[in-house]
Design brief:
Elements (H helix, E strand, L loop, with lengths): L1 E7 L2 E7 L5 H12 L6 E7 L3 E4 L34 E4 L12 E4 L12 E7 L1 H8 L14 E8 L2
Antiparallel strand pairs: 1-2, 1-8, 2-7, 3-4, 3-8, 4-6, 5-6, 5-7
């Protein structure tokens, strides 16, 4: 089984993919991770009792006003499903356009049914949810950006 391991200063987060419900989002995430796209990007947005978001290449820039505005240059069409946005679900971030998801993703830390059928869930945390909780607990500025950077790298691994 293919998994992703997201490494942060708080520890590792292991994701299992939901290939059966969002195959194109899974493929996109894996390709970006294998190319090194996510390396040294940040979890640039954290909202306690909701989610943490990462995957923006602009988060490598010191100008925090750019964080959350970038992508890979390629969009992925929405793959909405009946997968509920419960604690630990990983979903594709997007703009108001349902087909605008690119590289950014978020991990839900509290059940968020208002997202169901609106965002493409493509994975779930199978280990390291306490790491996600630590990231969400970071102090933030007025833009929900952690005041102390939380960089990440993503490696794709095969598990038994």
């Amino acid at each position: 089984m293919t998994q992703a391991v997201i490494t942060t200063r708080h520890g590792d987060i292991t994701l299992e993919f939901l290939s059966e419900v969002a195959p194109n989002h899974v493929k996109n995430f894996i390709e970006l991770a294998q190319s090194g796209f996510y390396d040294n990007t940040l979890f640039h947005r954290v909202i306690p009792d909701f989610m943490t978001q990462g995957g923006d290449p602009n988060s490598k820039n010191a100008d925090r006003r750019l964080h959350g505005t970038g992508g890979s240059g390629k969009n992925v069409k929405a793959e909405f499903s009946k997968t509920p946005h419960v604690r630990g679900v990983v979903s594709a971030a997007r703009s108001a356009n349902p087909d605008s998801a690119s590289s950014q993703f978020f991990i839900v830390v509290a059940d968020s049914s208002h997202l169901d059928g609106q965002y493409s869930a493509f994975g779930k945390v199978v280990a390291g949810l306490e790491v996600v909780d630590a990231i969400v607990a970071e102090a933030t500025d007025h833009r929900d950006n952690p005041t102390e950077s939380v960089s990440l790298t993503v490696k794709i691994v095969e598990s038994k």
